[in-house]
Amino acid sequence: MLKHFMLAAALILSSNLYADCSFKIINDSDLDFATLNPRGTIGDLLIPLCTQNPNKDMQTLTNCASRPDQTLYIYPHESTTCSQVNNKPVYLHLIAIKKQCVSQPQTTLGYVELHYPTDFTCE
User: Fold this and answer.
1) Model confidence at 43, in pLDDT bands (50, 70, 90)?
2) Pairing with 14, which of 6, 24, 70, 81 sits 20 to 30 Å away (CA)?
3) What is the pLDDT of residues 60-96, one digit of tens each?
4) Can you give the pTM of this predicted structure?
């Protein structure tokens, strides 16, 4: 009985290591998006361009396949990271032009997909 309890506890703990969530920002307008060196950040979490994303898992490769030089994407997140960034703005920095764009706060858990510039307010 104790063995089954410990196995169940281990499964629960291991399932909490990663949450089923991702963040994706797709550029819909700027043809030189990649040359602007864009960086998406949520708190201290960096969302790199797909072409610069070091992650090699199939989810990332699949979601980056269509326009990797125009898409910021990160997956997966640790569950603690997801809970810390939920309902917080996503900050998209376009470093080369000194522009900061802020999205509307996300109220959804799981997959967040934003489109630039539609879903952002820029200064």
Assistant:
1) confident
2) 24
3) 888 898 889 999 998 766 666 666 666 677 788 887 6
4) 0.74
Two structure tokens written together for 47? 């969302």
- Choose among 41, 21, 17, 47: nearest CA to 111: 21
Average predicted confidence (pLDDT) for the chain: 75
Q: Residue 13: what pLDDT?
A: 39
The Cα–Cα gap between 81 and 63 comes to 20
Spell out the residues 6+ positions from residue 56 whose beta carbon is closer than 8 angstroms to its own: none
> Terminus-to-terminus CA distance in the chain, angstroms?
60
The answer to whether 92 and 25 have CB atoms below 8 angstroms apart is yes
Between CA 9 and CA 15 the distance in angstroms is 10
Give dist(CA 119, CA 3) in Å, integer: 50
How many degrees, rounded to 5, is the angle at CA 22 between CA 102 and CA 24? 50
57-73: burial string, b at 16+ Cβ within 10 Å, e else:
eeebeebbeeebebbbb
